[in-house]
Amino acid sequence: MIAADTIRLPIPLIFSATLFSAGVYGVLARRNAVLVLMSVELMLNAVNVNLVAFSAHLKDKLFTGQIFALFVITVAAAEVGIGLAIVILIYRNREMINVDEVNLLKW
Amino acid sequence: MGPLAQAVAPSHMPIVLRPLLPELILVGTALALMLLDALRPTPDQRPFVLLSLAGVAGAAAATLSLWTWKGPGSVLGGMIAADRFAVYFRLVILAAAALGILLSSYYLDRAGEARGEYYPLLLFATAGMTLITAASDLILIFLALEILSLSLYLLTGFSFRRLASAEASMKYFLLGAFSSAFFLYGIAFAYGATGTTNLAGIATALASRVNGDALALIAVGLLAVGFSFKIAAVPFHMWTPDAYQGAPTCVTAFMSAGTKVAAFGAFLRVFGVAFLPLAHDWRAFMGVLAAISIIVGSVLAIAQTDIKRLLAYSSIAQAGFILVGLSAGTQAGIQSAMFYLAVYAGTVLGAFAVVAIASVRGEEHTALSSYAGLARRRPLLGLALTAFLLSLAGIPPMAGFIAKVSVFSAAVQAGSWPLVLIAVLASVAAAFFYIRVIVLMYMQDPAPEIEGVRIESDPAGWAAVLAPAFLTVVFGILPGLLFGLLRTASVVRF
Amino acid sequence: MESYYAQYGVVVAVLIAGIGLVAVAFTAARIVAPRRPLPEKLTTYECGIDPVGEGWAQTQIRYYIYAFLFVIFDVESVFLFPWATIFERLGMQAVVEMGIFIFILALGLLYAYRKKVLQWA
Asked: Which of C1, C2, C10, C103 has the highest number of chain B CBs within 10 A, making it the mutation to test binding with B?
């Protein structure tokens, strides 16, 4: 609500697009599974910025965007939990977590 | 009316939970099983199997009672749709879950992986799948998508001592999380373009504009990418063969059927309701997606030497055929896609059930060469797999034939005959590799190393094979049974 | 119809601008930045003591489980704050709903406890 008067919409949108792109780059370029996971988190948080910015810009009476951001935070936490569990599983089995060396299955 | 408005409204509206009852039953059963597993650990898996079957049956009964629902079209502030569309999809998913549970009890016993947390996870995944087909708000669609995905990542890695299973789980997780982020970004733009996440609200906001705007187009693109990952359409299919091959076969059977049906259910609802005003923009995109999925899936399937990977690539091609129906953008198209989905779910689940039984213990003998002479060693198993493969290939009198014909005719009516031409040619080429497996089963002698292997099966395993086989034939001969339901079920209500 | 395709034009323009921006930034850095490759620059620190061992150190696995449980329960409380600001207006119904939410969370904690995740191994 306050932000709508002080910041113009494109600024947070560009910021979140930059964050999101950094996340996409990280997922595609990183070999370490934990870093890939962190990049995914970056993407999710970029979306949060977007949601809150839209919510403020639209002066949404229902605060849909802000409530959704809370849900995204929760889902992201659950995702990290499960992701780390899987990464630890791989590490215990193979003693490494580089994505490009996990290549038992291929066509 | 959004959730908060309803909640903060001074006069308390009654909370109508009945359209959500199937999910509540599933989640309640899952929580009860979790408690049972924690408080009374027992190596005996029978109570888990029976209780989860009871939960699925209860959810199915609650779903059936919604067929004659006379209340409002959507409840809980427009979050849950109470239409026959949701009932139809839920019934297909619940049937897949019930067969998946039976197959799992068969498989896990023999693979030595019977642990208590399996069935709660499977029920959570089922709840996510049924919820996503009934959700009529993008927030709930996202949450349901995550519920089903997170459970399936864990189920994929359930045989974690087997390297392939852990690896499949990691690949599925990383790509799935990546695609969820795109999906979410799309939701954010849809919200920004229209000011609401409610599907009907989005449709109203978009319809009142003469032209779509850039934000809405970005939203359509990103959401399509997110859904394409979940339905395994090319070029977003990379996880599919690895996840399907690495996962325990009973999980593969369940998720190949359930995930695709659930994701397509939400796909049809989001694009057929919320973004219908932009149909002109996304129809061509769906057509391209369908064409390359069919071509790439069919071509790569020919090169496979492992039956699970072969079926995975086949499921990619099938996603393409279903997209043909969606790309028609008409009522007939949606109807044919829904018919195709039910047929696909039964067929692929049955095919993987045969693989699970033929593997004897866990993941042995999944190479195609192990299927040589199967029909001679186990005539009924061979016959069932033949029926499934013929249905996947789209050869009469199997249900797959009717499904393909109805999808194609819907697309031709909508004027996209070049797409149908590609699809028909590709399905003729694809018939080759299905028939190759059948020839292998009937015409060749078994390889020496599996000559003496005894395949045992019990009622649970047989049910998971014979029920889908029966339905595949019945719906092939009497498709009217299903199309009769679809006449009302394919109409999305608000 | 013209403005209809103009909408696609906007998308394309944004894409081109985005790619261009990154390309310009990278090439500018490449052109402007001075280059003096030295072997020392490849060491972890350019001054002081050479590091011993690898950058990735092992951490006890049990810390992960604590961190994980903390994050889950910490994050769930995110729903309690908005609820706390308005539950007075909503009355009994909201209290019951939050009760169910916390009950399910407690079930999770009980599960973790019974599965012996909360003990030092």
From this structure: C10
Q: What is the pLDDT of residues C89-112, one digit of tens each?
A: 888 888 898 999 999 988 988 998
Residues of A in contact with B187 (CB under 8 A): 47, 68
Which residue shows structure tokens 């992701």?
A: A83
Taking each helix axis from N to C end, the angle separating B118-134 and B21-39, rounded to the nearest 10 degrees, works out to 170
Q: Which of A36, A64, A29 is nearest to A50 (CA)?
A: A64
Number of folded domains that form chain A: 1
Q: Is A26 on the interface with B (CB under 8 A)?
A: no
Q: Is the separation of the CB atoms in B400 and B480 below 8 Å?
A: no
Q: Which residue of A has its CA nearest to B192?
A: A54
Contact residues for B466 (Cβ-Cβ < 8 A; gap 6+): B384
Interface residue of B211, B278, B282, B285 to substitute, partner C, most C CBs within 10 Å: B211
Contact between B171 and B162 under an 8 Å Cβ cutoff? The reply is no
Taking an 8 Å cut-off on Cβ atoms, the answer to whether B146 and A87 are in contact is no
Q: What's A31's domain CATH number?
A: 1.10.287.3510
List of chain C residues whose C-beta atoms are within 8 Å of the C-beta of residue B38: 110-111, 114-115
Q: Domain containing A44: what range?
A: 2-101
Q: Which of B312, B321, B314 is nearest to B291 (CA)?
A: B321
Residue A106 within any structural domain of the chain: no
What would the DSSP string read from start to end of B167-201?
HHHHHHHHHHHHHHHHHHHHHHHHHHHHS--BHHH
Q: Which two tokens stand for residue B360?
A: 């004897």
Whether residue B164 contacts residue A93, with contact meaning beta carbons closer than 8 Å, is answered with no
Quick check: is B3 in a domain? no
In a domain, B335, yes or no: yes
Q: CA-to-CA distance for B490 and C17, rounded, in angstroms?
A: 42
> Tens of pLDDT along B321-372?
999 998 888 888 999 999 999 999 999 999 999 999 888 777 777 888 888 8
Mutate to test the interface with A, among B79, B137, B172, B185 (most CBs of A within 10 A): B185
Looking at every residue in chain B, the average pLDDT score rounds to 89
Does a structural domain hold residue A107? no
In a domain, A76, yes or no: yes
Long-range contacts of B398-402, Cβ-Cβ distance < 8 Å, separation of 24 or more: B398/B472, B398/B473, B398/B476, B399/B343, B399/B346, B399/B347, B399/B471, B399/B472, B399/B473, B399/B474, B399/B475, B399/B476, B399/B479, B400/B343, B400/B344, B400/B347, B400/B472, B400/B476, B401/B476, B402/B339, B402/B343, B402/B475, B402/B476, B402/B479
Position B6 in a domain: no
Q: B241–A105: do the CB atoms touch at under 8 Å? A: yes
Task: Say what the alpha-carbon torsion angle B258, B261, B267, B270 is, to the nearest 10 degrees.
Answer: -90
Across residues B239-267, what is the average pLDDT?
A: 94
Partner residue opposite C75 with nearest CB, options A77, A84, A88: A77
Instruction: Enumerate neighbours of B (3 or more CB pairs within 8 A).
Output: A, C
Give which of B165, B170, B166 is closest to B362, Cα–Cα: B165
Domain that holds residue B62: 15-489
Q: How many structural domains compose chain B?
A: 1
Given CB atoms, is A21 within the 8 Å cutoff of chain B? Answer: no
In a domain, B5, yes or no: no
